[in-house]
Every structure is written in C-alpha cells, then in structure tokens.
Design a protein that fits this description.
Bound molecules: nicotinamide-adenine-dinucleotide, zinc ion
Number of helices: 13
CATH superfamily of the largest domain: Medium-chain alcohol dehydrogenases, catalytic domain
CATH architecture of the largest domain: Alpha-Beta Complex
Radius of gyration: 20 Å
Structural class: alpha/beta
Helix content: 25-40%
Length: 409
C-alpha cells in the first residue's frame, strides 16, 4: 500500500509499504477513507521534534472503515465507519479511567513514564505506524475507535480525529467560560478550533494573533478580533483592547515552531531585543540539533519561546494559560518568574482526544458547529508530498489539508 514515510529530517516520501496486520487480539485494521496533515507532522520534518525513526509512516489523523478485528474486540465490528483519536490509550488503567487518555500507563511500549502514545510520532511515542496510509493498525480498538453517525460527513469527521478535540481541550485548559476575554496565539487549524471552542464555551471577546493574511481572515470570519504580530506589538494591542488589564485566558496554539516578528518591531533594535534574539537562537539550537531546509521548505521557527513570553505578558493578573502547541522535551525556556509574580495558572498537554470526541460528535449532530469549513484543500495521496510542502510554507489559503488515501490505488 502507499503511505507517507519519514526517511530523515527534511526527507519524506510517498512509498510502497507492507499492509498492517493484527498484532494483538485487541487490535483492529482500518481501511482509511480520510487522513490529514497536521502542524505536529511539520515539527518532525523540520527537526524541531527530533528522534523520529526512519521508516515510520507519518500521520495521526484518520477516519475509515473497519476491515478486521481481533477476537477480543467487542464494541467495534467489521464494516463500522469510525474516527481514530490521535492519541492511543488502553481505556483500562487509572489515568484512562479518569479521562487522561494521553497519559495512559499501558499504551506506550516505552513504559508508563514514557508519555503520550500516538500514531506516526517519534521513538518516545511508540513509535506506531501512522495514518497517512491506505490502512492502519489500531491497538485497543474498543477504546481507540469511535463510531460515526451517518449524518456526519467525512469532511466533518476528519477534524474530530485531532484538531477539534485539541482546540476544545485548549479552551478548557485556559479555563475559558462565560464572559471571559481570550487570546488565541496561532491561527492554524488548531487555533481555528480554539477560537470556535472559546465561542462555544461562552467567551465574551476572542482575539486571534498570527501573521498569515488568509488565516487571520478565517479567524475574523469566526468572530475573532485579529492582530497581525508583524503589524502591531500583540502585547500592547491586547492591553489596549482590554482597558490596560490584559486578557483572562490565553491559548498557545503555535508551539515550538513559533516565529518572532520580521518587520517593524525588530527595526527598533534595543539591547533587550538583541538579548532576546540571541536567546531564541540558542533555543533553536537546543530543540533542533539537526535541520535540513530545502529552498522555502522545512525551516524551523526562529523563536521557540516567543508565544509563551507574549502570553505571560498579555494575561491579566491571576489569568490562565493553556498550552496545546507542542514543545519537545529539551525545551526549557519559560518566563517562570514573571508568571509566578502575576499568580498565573498554567495548564498544558497533549489532548485526551478519546474523552472529548463523543461530546463533539453531539455538537456537530445538533448543528452547533460545522467543523468542515476549516478544510481548505483536498488531495489524493499521490500529491501528499506537494501538499505537505504547501502547508509547511503556509501558502495563502492553505489551512487544513485532507488526504484521500484510497485514491492512490
Ligand atoms: N496538544 C495536542 O494534543 C496537539 C494536537 C494537535 C496539534 N498540536 C500542536 O498545535 C500547534 C498548531 O498546530 P497547527 O496544525 O495549527 O499548526 P500550523 O503550523 O498550521 O499553525 C501554526 C500557526 O502559528 C503561527 N505563528 C507562528 N509564530 C507565531 C507567533 N509568534 N504568534 C502567533 N502565531 C504564530 C503560524 O503563522 C501558523 O499559522 C502545533 O504545535 C501542533 O503540534 C497539539
Ligand atoms: Zn494533528
Ligand atoms: Zn490506559
């Protein structure tokens, strides 16, 4: 079968790979009818989430039809139409029972302390073969597959696999509630769902920060007040917009590949700005010891801690920061003293997808939200690498790419 395979930093290919088989009686094999490319995949190719094993099939977002199940799979049957939550969990251990599926004690073959298990990730996450393929093996299928109602389209369903639950999780982490003011950093696909979720949870005003015009436009069309960080200092702008107080909640939907402003702000080169730039340079070296840019592609962000620095500054006293942007283990930079002295609350992590998917299915069925508006591109698997490149370059108009694996045949 065809699949997108990681070969090295800056080197991914569409390869012919063996089809997956059942490895345990709790497994299922799913024939994928939809997959997608995520900002998380970009970290691997850019080198800012290191330790990928060559030969790993990429991708952790998928929907499909169950093709076979092991003897011990009871809730899922051959022929079911399902969404695959990105993170893998056993459903039985203590964290799973409490809803913390991303901290499952059993799913990660590297042991209970290893952290989140997910498809198509670095060695420390399994590794498990990913979902940008024609078929995939799903461990603990009773927990890691969720049946889809027929009223939900494929285009809506693919967003339930990762980014809608993650945006929703971000809004919950940031303690968004009725009447709160919320700043969302990053207007990629995850940021879009953080905005939508903040709205669902009753935020009074939502501010969205990015610099890509088409993404800011999409955020505006969802009701956010937008700030281009290359045109305005986002901290000053957010203070002005909140009568000097700052915002109640911040969601970091950018992560390690954050950039610092290109124009305007860096023109006013002060000693403190120079020190900040050299600090960012050091951070990039630490998080991405190996990079392999190719023309305009696969460039790591140039300011890994930019967003958390802005977040701590623009929050009001006693505000809450929810971090869903991904950072690698080696990343140590955070303005702790400033956050401590403002009595801020910090919450973060990988989404417990399995916990939120059923309630989000319900929101779609009831017509509260149509997530499919975020899908801007459809691609056949044959053009997956080109799609990766366009998404990586953040070409205008490219927000979420849905791949159709079966079209490769
Ligand atoms: N926690 C989780 O479970 C989870 C799940 C899925 C994705 N993620 C993470 O969420 C993040 C976003 O994913 P995505 O698919 O939307 O990625 P993306 O790369 O498409 O979007 C990131 C956006 O951030 C913007 N940006 C860069 N620097 C910025 C800055 N200083 N201020 C404001 N915006 C800035 C970029 O222009 C881009 O639009 C990634 O780090 C991804 O790994 C986390
Ligand atoms: Zn994803
Ligand atoms: Zn578990």
């Amino acid at each position: 079968m065809k699949a997108v395979v990681f070969h090295a930093v800056g080197d991914i290919r569409l390869d012919e790979v063996p089809e997956p088989t059942l490895e345990a009686q709790t497994d299922a094999i799913v024939r994928l009818t939809g997959s997608a490319i995520c900002g998380t995949d970009l970290h691997f190719v850019r080198g800012t989430m290191a330790d990928m094993v060559p030969g790993t099939v990429l991708g952790h977002e998928g929907i499909g039809i169950v093709e076979s199940v092991g003897r011990d799979v009871k809730q899922i049957a051959v022929g079911d139409r399902v969404v695959i939550p990105s993170t893998i969990a056993c459903g039985q251990c203590e964290p799973c029972k409490q809803g913390f599926f991303a901290q499952c004690n059993q799913a990660n073959p590297n042991g209970p302390e290893a952290g989140t298990a997910f498809y198509g990730g670095p060695k420390s996450t399994g590794p498990f073969q990913g979902l940008q393929a024609e078929k995939a093996r799903v461990p603990f299928a009773d927990t890691n597959l969720v049946k889809l109602p027929s009223t939900i389209s494929d285009e809506q369903a693919i967003l339930l696999s990762d980014i809608f639950p993650t945006g929703y999780f971000g809004a919950i982490l940031a303690e968004v509630g009725p009447g709160k003011t919320v700043a969302v950093f990053g207007c990629g696909p995850v940021g879009m769902f953080a905005i939508a979720s903040a709205k669902i949870l009753g935020a009074s005003r939502i501010f969205a920060i990015d610099t890509i015009a088409s993404r800011l436009e999409m955020a505006r069309s969802q009701g956010a007040e937008v700030i281009d960080y290359n045109a305005q200092d986002p901290v000053e702008a957010l203070k002005q917009l909140t009568s000097g107080r700052g915002v109640d909640c911040v969601i970091d939907a950018v992560g390690v590949d954050a950039n610092h402003p290109e124009r305007g702000l860096v023109d006013r080169v002060s000693p403190s700005k120079r020190a900040e730039k050299s600090q960012f340079k050091q951070e990039v070296k630490t998080v991405a010891p190996k990079t392999n840019p190719d023309g305009d592609n696969w460039h790591p962000g140039d300011a890994p801690s930019q967003v958390v620095r802005w977040a701590v500054k623009c929050l009001k006293k006693v505000g809450t920061l929810g971090i869903i942007g991904v950072y690698p283990m080696q990343h140590m930079s955070f303005p702790l003293g400033e956050a401590m002295n403002k009595n801020l609350t910090l919450k973060m992590g990988n989404c417990n997808h399995r916990k939120y998917i059923p309630e989000l299915i319900d929101l779609i069925v009831r017509g509260v939200i149509d997530p499919s508006t975020v899908v801007t591109q459809h691609g056949h698997m044959a053009s997956a690498i080109d799609a990766y490149k366009a998404f990586d370059k953040r070409e205008e108009g490219w927000v979420k790419v849905m791949l159709e694996p079966q079209a490769a045949e």
